[in-house]
Amino acid sequence: MKPPHATWLVTGAGGMLGQDLLARMRSEPDTEVVGLGSAALDITDPAAVAAAVAEYQPVVVVNCAAWTAVDNAETQEADAARVNGEGPGNLARACAEHGAKLLHVSTDYVFPGDADRPYPEDAPTGPRGAYGRTKLAGEQAVLATLPDDGYVVRTAWLYGAGGRNFARTMIRLEGVKDTLDVVDDQRGQPTWTVDLADRLVRLGHAALRGAGERTGEKAAPAGVYHGTSGGEVTWFGFAREIFRLLGADPERVRPTTTEALGLPAPRPAYSVLGHDRWQQAGIEPVRDWRSALAEAFPALVAAERG
Description:
Shape: globular
Mean pLDDT: 95
Strand content: 15-25%
Number of strands: 12
Low-confidence stretches: none
Largest sheet: 6 strands, parallel
CATH topology of one domain: Rossmann fold
CATH class of one domain: Alpha Beta
Radius of gyration: 19 Å
CATH architecture of one domain: 3-Layer(aba) Sandwich
């Protein structure tokens, strides 16, 4: 007898990560996916969230919806907090009512960025800006409401074919600029949205194993995971690798400082995250950033240059 289909609900489905997550989910057997963009579901509306979860009865909800305008959050923190803080809380309460697992995507900005070694999942948080504060509020709402069914996946430096991002910007600017000045005092882990989408799917299935599936595979404990690529690099080094893959001279990329840019929001100088928690879920961490970028590159170039 064919097993019944299980439904997953993806919020923020129109974004860069949401698009790749929907594409990844559509290949899953015996699983249906419902993707709702911000126009279809405003996660800041508790009644709308409750109605959506009641209608689709998902076994897993993946929240990709977020206020990501880091600089604007400094002057619009209340607006950012509604999306990044209250929205995940609304989803968590609806999931608690219907017995669904919630995978919530968060950020490296919850850390102060002053470390000299990768932040483990249980490292003390300490955001320096409004964006990080609002994202931390969302994390806390999910983990407090769903201590056994809430999963926070922190990521950073995302790039993909389905939206604006640093990698696509560098590809575009290489064709129109003789030289580029890129910051060399921020260190992190460029992460392909396709890789993160894959880990979210695997984590969701591992979470469901803890809800009663007897497969002999390891169930994923609830809590915090770090969904970033392996290795580390500065934005300057990342840009030079992009130029190299384009066949352009990496020397055209020149180093500069964060201070020289004069951006409103503080940026973490060190955003490297540790990945030890994946082992508890029986899942391999994301691969090294260079190998991922090489595989992603044809799609990035096609998306940017047509």
